[in-house]
Fold this sequence. Notes:
The complex is a heterotrimer. Chain A is of the alpha/beta class. Chain A has helices at about 40-50, 70-75, 95-105, 110-120, 140-150, 170-185, 195-200, 220, 225-230, 240-245, 255-275; strands at about 1-10, 15-25, 30-35, 55-60, 65, 80, 155-160, 185-190, 205-210, 210-220. Chain A has a domain at about 1-90 and about 150-235: P-loop containing nucleotide triphosphate hydrolases (Rossmann fold). Chain A contains eleven helices and ten strands. Chain A is globular. The model of chain A has no long low-confidence stretch (mean pLDDT about 90). By secondary structure, chain B is α/β, with parallel strands linked by helices. The longest helix of chain C has 29 residues, at about 130-160. Chain C is mostly helical. The model of chain C has no long low-confidence stretch (mean pLDDT about 85). In chain C, helix 1 (about 1-10) crosses helix 4, helix 2 runs parallel beside helix 10 (about 220-240) and helix 3 (about 40-60) packs parallel to helix 5. Chain C contains ten helices and no strands. Classes of the chains: A alpha/beta, B alpha/beta, C mainly alpha. The interface of A and B includes residues 37, 237, 245, 258 and 271 of A.
Amino acid sequence: MIEFRDVTYIHENGVKALDGITMQMDAGETIAIVGENGAGKTTLIKHVTGLLKPTSGAVLVDGVNTRETSTATLSRKVGIAFQNPDHQLFSESVQEEIAFALKNFGFPPDLVEKRVTWGLQLFGLEEYKESSPLILSGGEKKRLTLACILAWDPEVVILDEPTVGQDAIQKEKLAGTIKMLGSTGKTVVVVSHDIEFLWPLQPRVVVMKSGRIVADGPAPELMTKKEMLESARVAEPQLVSFYQALSRRPESPFVDALEARLWIEEGEASHRGGSAVT
Amino acid sequence: MDKILEIEELSFRYPEAAKKAVDSFNLDIGESEIVVLAGPSGCGKSTLLRTINGLIPHMYNGDYSGDVRVAGSSVRASSMRDLAQIVGFLFQNPENQIFMFTVERDIAFGLENLGVPRPEMRRRVDEAISLLGIGNISQRAPHELSDGQKQRVALAGVLAMRPRLIILDEPTSLLDPKTAMELVDLVARLRKELGTTFVVVEHRLDLLVRVADRIVVMDAGAKVLDGTPRDVLFSEAADGYGVAVPSVTQVQKMLARDGLVADGKIYSAKELASIMERRGA
Amino acid sequence: MMWLSSGFIFRKGASRYHRLDPRVKLLVSVLMFVTALIVRSIFQLAIVLAFMVAVAAIATVLKRVARTMALTATFSALIFIINVVFTRNLETSALYASRFVAIVVSTSLFFITTSPDELEQVMKMFRLPRDVVFAFVTAVRFIPVMMLDALQIMDAQKSRGLELEKGNLLRRVRNMIPILIPLVVNAVVRSGELAEAMESRAYGAVPRPTSLAVYRAKTVDRVVAVAAVLTFAFTAYSFYFLLPTFVP
Lengths: 278, 281, 248
């Protein structure tokens, strides 16, 4: 689906932001890209739609080289939700805002209307249909930018730091949306620092450091590699720390608090059961 | 010990708003406490913060009733000039707080505004630089700094004014976890070395839960929870208010409901694991 | 955008020119500016431009100045054409066109070698009101930040299918709206945040703020200032009275 072939990207000022990146993102995967600030995460995702072109190497989306087509064309397939909604919102009304991309991509008017309505409903924004997007709250703006992207139904959705400034309830909804997208076969890529948010989603994790990919694999496997995480300055999920500190433990780390609790309960039961026998 | 902050029946409504942003709010904070202010988006946290350092009512108008006192002085009756020397405010975006082109000169900004004589200014700027460990970047320009560095510079600028209470508005939102941890350690150290009181608005409680003395939760302008981290995180109401209970604490909370691990502390992942081991689970 | 960036954004430099007192740098640029205005032939202007290039080289900003010259030249070509159409005189038209480049470069030289902090100092020394100085310096300080905003906005809108490179002139202008509105909104929000930060750090508390930085003219500053004035005087005199007899 999306392929990076030995991609290197050097900034104007000489800084190497990406160094020999080779990787693939397949349809239907949920991928988390983690790493400290400056590791190259945002630079990487900008290459997917051709916002940045590699200094050497190539990026292919469904076989098409990003150098040979425009960002607008690539964006039809790959929707990127950038971190700051204030960099996007400009229309007179929320519904026009959602319609903007649809019109740019050449959707016919009746389909535009349908998608706009659907987007408003999906993100609970119907009451703001006619309002100016600029007066919405921070959380509402973020939902709006997501609605804008999902309205044109891209196959790939990339989220750049979607949890910044979001409270726990909003994060839960977001996690639900990501799961929903995954279940409908979409490729979802999340760039985030928020390990606690990412962990329950159990995505494929790509760890970046200094422009390179230092690890790439399923979350339960990667997030237990303490040394690697430390050198990449990536936080260890709390439940993994808990899991690691136990001497007797299950196959893979607990996905959420409930799983941990249930496992402890089982342990308690067998302990009690054991002493009853003795 | 005298309270450094007293908020008494504070209500505030913005001019064009239908509802109050802050509603009959009461809060007392003692000197050198680290208090975390949490609550769902739109609950009025930002407004409340601005009533503490005086931006409300001195910069923003509205329906204001009740009283806010810092170090005994009423905020409403004091000038921003006086308040700036008691309460410091570190805003969310460090970029929009750095005015000067050189780090060192920006740290001096507040002191220049107060007309502090140069020798004293020099002393305080050097002190702030050393407290924050930014001596190696003191001559740099803002665009040459990382987000974490910019934040330290902005904090140095606040510290140079020697406030007794510092407000931090979502300080970790732009930082990666390791840098965020470093900031939290810094806050704890400043509290210990200088006795500064901190009010921190934060969603990512997992980072602050170990240093906070108290957590205050707001919803729709009113105070709904106020207690030690343990009391607040373990309360049934916490989940309803969008309070992000850290996952290991969630485990501890579930165990506590069943009568296990039911004491006053909040345990870290390692601590909880060793307790479970000792019980032979 | 390129033009603005290469021509007027300050970037730190270590050359001796950078280290001169900002008043001297201002003097040099003003004198170059005035000289460009009083020249009477293309030949004289060429000398002035050569001199500017030399100063740029000393200040190690040659590449940027060259770029500014090239970018300004495209606009000055327009001036050339208009002048030729109206005056039918090739030499004067060329003079006006290249004079424009010279004026821009002399101004640019000042801004790219003088930091916003130094600008502040110069403005204060000219006894400009404190609020005006602050507004100006803050604006300069945030130009690079806003340019970055503009780039990010363009990225975000391109990602929604906005084609900035296609279409006729009218279409392209309309396509700027999704860029300009967020830019303006961001600027307004930024101003609000800056205002809060200023208030919170007691801006305006005393009528005459003190200053951490000390600016004292050094010998080299005085020397360069005197040299600049003498050069100007000599050049002006030559151009007016001596050179015309040498020009072929």
